[in-house]
Design brief:
Number of helices: 4
Number of domains: 1
CATH architecture: 2-Layer Sandwich
Order of helices and strands: HHEEEHEEEH
Structural class: alpha+beta
Number of strands: 6
Radius of gyration: 15 Å
Oligomer: single chain
Strand content: 25-35%
Mean pLDDT: 93
CATH superfamily: GAF domain
Length: 159
């Protein structure tokens, strides 16, 4: 089956508004988490052409690499380490305009310049994070946080 997205909008906000309902329709009856996260990753990459994006899933004391789009990535991240581990430990979204200025940043790729990480919750516990990297400084804003948090809130129902 071929899936097509019909995306409208010039601003990033308009693109999120167009994309999110189509993602929900695509995922509607799927129950396999890997399939869901894989297609969400692909759709975000296709729409926004972010440098790297993907999911890290909580596995005991580590975040473990899940479905992603982009270059080879770190496979395990400890709680409290780097931007992803900080988002997990603090249970809050992280907006980093310059990753080199983030204390303890883990450089999976030197091409990454800015990053946003959104925790995904199940029963008030972080079960995963969505990590999005850009090869441009200051590429993310509160608009990205707003819509990626909406996306992750919806995705939490599949965990």
């Amino acid at each position: 089956m071929t899936e097509n997205f019909f995306l409208t909008g010039n601003t990033r906000e308009e693109q999120y508004v167009s994309l999110l309902p189509q993602l929900e329709a695509l995922i509607d009856k799927e129950t396999n988490l890997t399939a869901i996260l894989s297609n969400v990753s692909a759709a975000l990459k296709q729409q926004f052409d972010f440098f790297w994006l993907g999911f890290y899933l909580v596995d005991n004391d580590n975040l473990v690499l899940g479905p992603f789009q982009g270059t080879v990535a770190c496979m395990r991240i400890a709680k409290g380490k780097g931007v992803c581990g900080t988002a997990w430990e603090q249970a809050t979204s992280q907006l980093v305009p310059d990753v080199d200025a983030f204390p303890g940043h883990i450089a999976c790729s030197n091409a990454s310049k800015s990053e946003v990480v959104i925790p995904i919750f199940k029963m008030n516990n972080v079960v995963a994070v969505l990590d999005v990297d850009s090869d441009k400084y200051n590429d993310f804003t509160s608009v990205d946080i707003l819509y990626l948090e909406k996306l992750c809130n919806w995705l939490s129902t599949y965990f």
